[in-house]
Design brief:
Length: 234
Amino acid sequence: MSGILFVSGLHADTTIDRSRYHTLRRRRLPIVFVNGDLPGLGVPCVSCDDVAAGRTAARHLIELGHRRIGFVNGPLRYSTVQRRLAGFRAALREMGGGYDTDLVELSPFDVEGGQSAASLLVERGATALVCGSDLMALGVVRAVRRHGLKVPEDVSVVGADDSPLMSFTDPPLTTVRQPVQAMGVAAVRALLDEIKGRPAKAAEYLFQPELVVRSSTRARWSRHDGDAAPPGAR
């Protein structure tokens, strides 16, 4: 084995035993992480900027006029979840008062987890939901419909990653796209450089996400609503 590329695995779990990775480093085996930096290990990491991803999704919904915006994601022990939640909350603070920062539900990273979390948030009056993955977002859409509501007429939904086929779902999913190709190229190049004895700087290299707007989000505010339009509403 010449080297290992760890992709969105256990290394993103902040509670894990890191001894396995230290053992590999002592053996001088080249390692590169993707989405899940482990500070102090001396390993290069290629990551999507998850703080920016959480902020981007929240700002999109804020600009559409939503004020009760929920956050649906996986367990908080994952660094990616912590960062997205930080970005989400930062966007709500940056856009001024009147936003509930406690509409947060964390659950397993799957359709059922998204459905369970969304059901609780919809019952608490959320009109828009930021999801930790596209798969969770599909569960969110299911939960909204089981409450007799519609996406996006009643509840707007934003996914994450822009997985294949998300433009063909019902409705086509608005999502925050990871620059997967650019990140993959960078990670492989970093690993090859490690193998060739030209190691990259042991740092985290952040790639910027992109908002892809489709049909699962829509404007909440209109001139006939009781609230004034928030900043940026169109």
